Amino acid sequence: MTTNLQTLPGSSENVEAPGTPKKHRTPRESRGTLSFSRRARTKALGKHAVLIITGAVMIYPLLWMLVSAMRPNDLIFKDPGLWLSHLDMSNYKNGWSALTHPFGHYLLNSAIVVLGSIVGNLVSCSMAAYAFARLKFTASKLFFGIMLLTIMLPFHVVIVPQYVMFSQIGWVNTFWPLIVPKLLATDAFFVFLMVQFIRGIPKDLDEAARIDGAGHPRIFLRVILPLMVPALATTTIFTFIWTWNDFFGALIYLTDPDMFTVPVALRAFVDSQAGTSWGSLFAMSIVSLAPVFLVFLFGQRYLIKGIATTGIK
Amino acid sequence: MSALGELSKMKRRTGPKSAAEKRDDRRDNKAAYIFLLPWLVGLLFITVGPMLASLYLSFTDYNLLQSPNWIGLDNFARMLRDTRLHNSLGVTFTYVLVGVPIQLAIALLIAMVLDRGIRGLPFYRSVFYLPSLLGGSVAIAILWKQMFGTTGLVNQLLAMVGIHGPGWISDPKTALGSIILLHVWTFGAPMIIFLAGLRQIPVMYYEAADVDGASRWQKFRNITIPLLSPIIFFNLVLQIIGSFQSFTQAFIVSGGSGGPSDSTMFFTLYLYQKGFGQFDMGYASAMAWVLLIIIGAFTAVNFIASKFWVFYDD
């Protein structure tokens, strides 16, 4: 019943559907009696009340953090409200230079890791997905099954030997341990996402290209890749958010403050200030969340389609 | 739709091949393995290789400085005696078994309220989804640490109605609860999966039930739940696997200690302390395999139980 939820370009209405008429409503509206529509309206009002209250409770902490970062430090422990009597940006100034390096240094480090990871995932996952979705080869089912299983594998079970391996080749305190696995398609969810997508592209297109004499590299680059841009966009956005937020990997591999990414820098900040400068801590937390928020604003369509089709978060 | 669906489908597909399929059996092995090369190298060196290596290390006393010595089942015997480890299992189980059902129940409830063509759906959906994207970050864990502190936001709000709240994260009785709440806060991702699933339920079922005069509860119990059961199952498996691996929130909120009095010492946090704090890597590897087996067992039980309650339409 859910197999038709593919990541086809056209199937976004499946999830989005803001403009399509809602079938559920039609029988009710067609009756059209006054008392009924009044009852329907009361019901809708009740639903909106539930949604608005739940939403407000969920978003309140975020708004409060945003406001508190612009308040003098002592107010953070006194004022639970959102009213800002006067704007105080000193928390941002102090937070920016509170650690060994200015905070921009950590943002840059994170950006490098994120960029490397995105490129890695796009290249390696799309190649693997093309093979799984379009090519016939020995043991393809076995490998596909293994690929699906690795999605569910807890990373703890590989982290110790991985650490030993990377430390022996001198990669601790470099970005390589965070980027190289992405170049090797170890984020198998994206392989799966792309396989699903490619399966939705008509095979006639490949056949036509093949008749024109194109080989697999050409079909992949010229036919499939241009058509799977939505899946590539979803991959890019999720890779961005996950890599930007990744704490465990950075905690293990990056111990030198020069190499800190944003999450480990924030952690060092929490540990160093011992509850004295929550304002600047909040300010830098907001700086660290801002890119994720922006990606969310502009990439929402792909994010929502992505989780609705593959169930990744 | 899902990786889980694919896995269960794979079993069914195997059957005798038709003549047409056999004719179409031209293989492009060379091209395929070239395209798969990065993935195969990753599988070997990043996934399967390290997995087997950690299985080996779990039978050794490896500490990163000296070469590993085979000590048989000593690590596992030590685990049986390690009361801090037992406690960490309890903490993790509580987190998973309390946090996941509450999170999924709220996700389903809100998805159902959102489903019936409500106005402003994209706006509400964004509001509920946003925390899922931010929830895993260090920044939000920092916010939580403040909010549930002795003079944090929660207690400030409680004070306005005259309640003197405890220091939620400094009290062993409530510290884990605060972190579970953070998990519940991220119900947006499963909610979106529920929403997509609800869209697939044909309206005519509800219309027919309306004609028969079914109550709202009857419709929920006899239409929504059975038809949504594959999605519920999918969310359940996914959230359980993910929650067992939670780490960042407990680490930041407790300052890496798992305190107060080990009340937020997640299994993963203890594993980190053993492996990367004390470099007791043999023991950490053994713990990782125990975690893998626990997650595998939970998933297997889920799959077996699903035969009794998950309803497949096809």
Automatic annotation (TrEMBL), chain A:
<feature type="region of interest" description="Disordered">
    <location>
        <begin position="1"/>
        <end position="35"/>
    </location>
</feature>
<keyword id="KW-0812">Transmembrane</keyword>
<feature type="compositionally biased region" description="Polar residues">
    <location>
        <begin position="1"/>
        <end position="14"/>
    </location>
</feature>
<keyword id="KW-0813">Transport</keyword>
<feature type="transmembrane region" description="Helical">
    <location>
        <begin position="142"/>
        <end position="163"/>
    </location>
</feature>
<keyword id="KW-1133">Transmembrane helix</keyword>
<feature type="transmembrane region" description="Helical">
    <location>
        <begin position="278"/>
        <end position="298"/>
    </location>
</feature>
<dbReference type="InterPro" id="IPR035906">
    <property type="entry name" value="MetI-like_sf"/>
</dbReference>
<comment type="similarity">
    <text>Belongs to the binding-protein-dependent transport system permease family.</text>
</comment>
<dbReference type="InterPro" id="IPR000515">
    <property type="entry name" value="MetI-like"/>
</dbReference>
<feature type="transmembrane region" description="Helical">
    <location>
        <begin position="219"/>
        <end position="244"/>
    </location>
</feature>
<feature type="transmembrane region" description="Helical">
    <location>
        <begin position="106"/>
        <end position="130"/>
    </location>
</feature>
<feature type="transmembrane region" description="Helical">
    <location>
        <begin position="48"/>
        <end position="67"/>
    </location>
</feature>
<feature type="transmembrane region" description="Helical">
    <location>
        <begin position="175"/>
        <end position="198"/>
    </location>
</feature>
<dbReference type="Pfam" id="PF00528">
    <property type="entry name" value="BPD_transp_1"/>
</dbReference>
<protein>
    <submittedName>
        <fullName>Carbohydrate ABC transporter permease</fullName>
    </submittedName>
</protein>
<keyword id="KW-0472">Membrane</keyword>
<keyword id="KW-1003">Cell membrane</keyword>
<feature type="domain" description="ABC transmembrane type-1">
    <location>
        <begin position="107"/>
        <end position="299"/>
    </location>
</feature>
TrEMBL record, chain B:
<feature type="transmembrane region" description="Helical">
    <location>
        <begin position="175"/>
        <end position="198"/>
    </location>
</feature>
<feature type="transmembrane region" description="Helical">
    <location>
        <begin position="126"/>
        <end position="144"/>
    </location>
</feature>
<feature type="transmembrane region" description="Helical">
    <location>
        <begin position="225"/>
        <end position="244"/>
    </location>
</feature>
<protein>
    <submittedName>
        <fullName>Sugar ABC transporter permease</fullName>
    </submittedName>
</protein>
<keyword id="KW-0472">Membrane</keyword>
<feature type="region of interest" description="Disordered">
    <location>
        <begin position="1"/>
        <end position="24"/>
    </location>
</feature>
<keyword id="KW-0812">Transmembrane</keyword>
<dbReference type="InterPro" id="IPR000515">
    <property type="entry name" value="MetI-like"/>
</dbReference>
<comment type="similarity">
    <text>Belongs to the binding-protein-dependent transport system permease family.</text>
</comment>
<feature type="transmembrane region" description="Helical">
    <location>
        <begin position="284"/>
        <end position="305"/>
    </location>
</feature>
<feature type="transmembrane region" description="Helical">
    <location>
        <begin position="32"/>
        <end position="59"/>
    </location>
</feature>
<dbReference type="InterPro" id="IPR035906">
    <property type="entry name" value="MetI-like_sf"/>
</dbReference>
<keyword id="KW-1133">Transmembrane helix</keyword>
<feature type="domain" description="ABC transmembrane type-1">
    <location>
        <begin position="89"/>
        <end position="302"/>
    </location>
</feature>
<dbReference type="InterPro" id="IPR051393">
    <property type="entry name" value="ABC_transporter_permease"/>
</dbReference>
<feature type="transmembrane region" description="Helical">
    <location>
        <begin position="93"/>
        <end position="114"/>
    </location>
</feature>
<keyword id="KW-0813">Transport</keyword>
<dbReference type="Pfam" id="PF00528">
    <property type="entry name" value="BPD_transp_1"/>
</dbReference>
<keyword id="KW-1003">Cell membrane</keyword>
